[in-house]
Amino acid sequence: MKACSYARQPPILTAVAALALAGCAGGDGASAPAPAVSAAAPASRSPAAPSAASSRPAARRLPRPSLALRAASLAEVHDPGRVTGVLTGPCRARDDGQLPDRRCTPGAIDPAVTQADIQSTICVTGYTDTVRPPESQTEAFKTGQAYPAYGLPPGTGGELDHLVPLELGGANDAANLWPETGPVPNPKDSVEDALHRAVCDGQVSLARAQRAIAHNWETALSGLGLSAPAAAPAPTRPVQALSCGASVSSSSPPDYTTVDINVHTAAGASVTTVAHYKTTDHQKTAVADGAGQATLPYYISGATPGYTVTVDVTVSASSRTATCSTSFTPVS
Question: What is the 3-state secondary structure (H, E, C) of the chain?
Fold first, then answer.
């Protein structure tokens, strides 16, 4: 064994010398000094375990949630009977004005209306009247905020609409109000009514109906598996009454002359006249011309002078019929 001797070392080198001495004592002349190691490190090391980061699979990018899921948390504002909030533009309506700007009008609901109390709130007839703001407030918001924010000129036809309607627990906040242009009532109204019936009948939950109509009212029913409301029947034009007017060319025709019965009615109408003489009746027929005029002549021969002859007129066109009359009194 090789002897090792060390001169007095400065304090800084004492620890190094101690380690060298231990290495010297532990080996023979053929052995190389053992490498210095930290006192805390073990003499032998087992294979290193993979770190948490290396053992975890590579992160997977999740698909972006749908708009319907992103709209799951609608703003909650309890503001019955009053308009709240501020609408700041610029806002741009979508789908030719049928859908609001998602940033400006994401929708808002009244937290006081819940699934547990729908039968005492929205499903009660007249509920919306108890929470709807007065017209003075809605008109002021419409013209002072909604129209300017959406870039609509004053006088544009339409209404201030609740994106989530009051009948589904919508709030009166600016986040739920937008200027819906077009005729009133509009197609969205029938969707709102259908969703309201479905919620109150238990076909769909209140929250699902609120989210669906806030996302896109045009697809709300189909997205919930509900049938679209029946289309309103096309308005029928009222049937115009058939007109009938009659006059005579002479109210006192002499005997052995002709008196004309002039009838005014619809173009193409069938005309029937019956002259009631003292002892007999004379009937004639004609068709009104393009101007609705018909003339039916009666020859006076042997009529009783001074006796007033009444002429009854009946006109008909399609399923319409009308009557009128005139008269003349022959003279000798």
Answer: CCCCCCCCCCHHHHHHHHHHHHHHHCCCCCCCCCCCCCCCCCCCCCCCCCCHHHHCCCCCCCCCCCHHHHCCCCEECCCCCCCECCCCCCCCCECCCCECCCCCCCCEECCCCCHHHHHHCCCCCCHHHHHCCCHHHHHHHHHHHHHHHCCCCCCCCEEEEECCCHHHCECCEHHHEEEEECCCCCHHHHHHHHHHHHHHCCCCCHHHHHHHHHHCCCCHHHHCCCCCCCCCCCCCCCCCCCCCEEEECCCCCECCCEEEEEEECCCCCEEEEEEECCCCEEEEEEECCCCCEEEEEEECCCCCCCCCEEEEEEEEECCEEEEEEEEECCEC
